[in-house]
Specification:
The protein has about 325 residues and is α/β, with parallel strands linked by helices. It is built from twelve helices and 14 strands. About 35% of the residues lie in helices and about 20% in strands. Strand 2, helix 1 and strand 3 form a beta-alpha-beta unit.
């Protein structure tokens, strides 16, 4: 099964074309499916938007340079998980532009010239061509100047929609590919866990997800700020949790269940010492994944909704996405 990106949230995508009737037709077809889709007939304005998006992107701060993380590594990366929670409060994460679809044949500046002005940020670049431009598009694809080209036709809308979906996922996979080795590969590549994540997203309409532990625990968020934590623990971590509870809450009523790994502990949002009675609210059922060394715990709304800036709130504050 295909792996999930380490991090994912809705992003802004742009279609650039000087043919305004084409843009209007694309808006009617795609506008409701892609709420962050921008349309533009000015290449210069598209360049400005993309460069501004890249310069202000909160995404680039999730990973930090740290030459001390690995003794033999220079410029190694480590994941600042605290910044993931800060990111959830930042509505500008939705301003990040992941995919640009542009017509090739435009006045003043063709599509390839426009794309050459964009920063090398993992942006997915797609060119719309007529039959006369197809050979040039093929060469640009082979030269890795673009990720894809689409021939303009009455049915091109379906291909554009598919491209936008795939391009957004690929944007996130490429952006954090260098961080993948820092996560437990048995967990983030576990087919059962990936299937569980996909089922959770489908059943609850979750549109954002973030890996929040080296083992691959994930936080899922919907458009209104409802969220679920799907935690992954191994035997060593669960034993450490049990020992911590035993040392600090020696008469805890659910100690046996913690020791036998029937229950797990989630203390997200707890910023000060709590009573033994209050601790009971933070234990949840866990189960073993594939009869191996990994255990799963599910916790609903571990982060208060007021600490999340959701997509719907962002959309309510936006003006029309059609020029």
């Amino acid at each position: 099964m295909k792996t999930l990106p380490l991090f994912f949230h809705p992003t802004t995508q742009i279609i650039v074309d000087d043919d305004v009737p084409f843009l209007q037709a694309a808006w009617e077809l795609l506008g409701d499916c892609f709420p962050l889709l921008l349309f533009d007939y000015e290449p210069e304005e598209a360049i400005r938007k993309v460069c501004k998006s890249y310069a202000a992107s909160p995404l680039q701060y999730l990973a930090e340079d740290n030459t001390n993380l690995l003794s033999k590594a220079v410029g190694a990366k480590y994941i600042n998980f605290d910044r993931i929670f800060a990111l959830l409060k930042d509505p500008h994460r939705f301003d990040v532009i992941s995919v640009v679809v542009t017509d090739y044949n435009m006045p003043r500046m063709n599509g390839l010239e426009m794309l050459s002005h964009f920063p090398d940020s993992g942006l997915q670049r797609v060119v719309l061509t007529g039959n006369a431009d197809e050979q040039l598009a093929v060469k640009s694809f082979n030269d890795r100047r673009i990720e894809k080209f689409i021939t303009k036709s009455p049915t091109a809308g379906e291909e554009i929609a598919k491209t936008l979906l795939e391009g957004e996922v690929m944007f996130f996979k490429n952006a954090y590919q260098s961080l993948v080795p820092f996560f437990d590969q048995n967990a983030i590549r576990n087919d059962t866990y990936i299937a569980l994540c996909r089922k959770l997203m489908e059943e609850n309409s979750y549109i954002e997800h973030y890996t929040v532990s080296p083992l691959g625990s994930r936080l899922f968020v919907d458009k209104d700020g409802n969220c679920t934590f799907l935690g992954i623990h191994n035997t060593q971590e669960l034993d450490q949790i049990y020992e911590w509870v035993k040392d600090n809450y020696p008469t805890f009523s659910k100690m046996k269940d913690l020791e036998e790994k029937n229950l797990g502990l989630c203390l997200w949002g707890v910023k000060e010492a709590i009573s033994e009675k209050a601790l009971e609210d933070h234990v949840h059922p866990i189960y073993r994944l594939d009869d191996g060394d990994l255990y799963v715990i599910q916790v609903d709304q571990p982060i208060p909704k007021e600490d999340i800036s959701p997509l719907q709130q962002y959309l309510d504050q936006q003006e029309s996405r059609m020029p």
